[in-house]
Amino acid sequence: MGLFVVLVCGQLLLHRRTLWLPRWILRRAVPKRRWPHALRLLRPVAHGADWLLRPRLAWLVSGWRVSVIALVCLLLALCTTPLEMLPGANTTTGAALTAFALALTARDGLLVIVGMLACGLLVTMVVWLVF
After folding, report:
1. Which of 2, 105, 122, 128 is a Cys-bridge partner for 92, taking CB atoms 3.0 to 4.6 Å apart?
2. What is the pLDDT of residues 27-67, one digit of tens each?
């Protein structure tokens, strides 16, 4: 997962208009027989996300701030392996990455704030657990 995040964030930092992914990732697929079950499970989640996510505080997800978000996500992805030694650290990292990804997808600046708060919590946890 970290490699995928590094690939995407690196391309965001380079201001690419389209994302490049290795062929082996692009070839992965879900078998057709699993789609009906997956859709039944994910439909309520999608409805909840539609209700929760909306464009707001759009200035936090535009211009140079997208590069800042990409840089923060890149640093989080690079820190995932060392953080595995600390209890709860990777959960917080995943929460921050999820908040940033949803913020960029839905143009929801409020989720950028949530992601930054998760990063602050992560730094606090690392300092408290290490020192």
Report:
1. 122
2. 999 899 999 999 999 999 999 998 999 999 999 999 999 99
Instruction: Compute the distance between CA of residue 110 and CA of residue 130 in angstroms, rounded to an integer.
Output: 30
Residue 56's beta-bridge partner residues?
108
Biggest CA pair distance of the chain:
51
Instruction: Residue 63: give the domain boundaries.
Output: 2-17+49-130
Of 56, 64, 74, nearest in space to 10 by CA: 74
d(CA 60, CA 113): 9
Q: Residue 99: what pLDDT?
A: 96
Cα–Cα nearest to 114, from 44, 50, 52, 42: 52
Cα torsion angle, 21, 27, 33, 34, sign: negative
Axis-axis angle for helices 109-130, 64-83 (nearest 10): 30
Domain count, the chain: 1
In this structure, what token pair is assigned to residue 44? 């309520």
Residue located via tokens 């595995």: 84
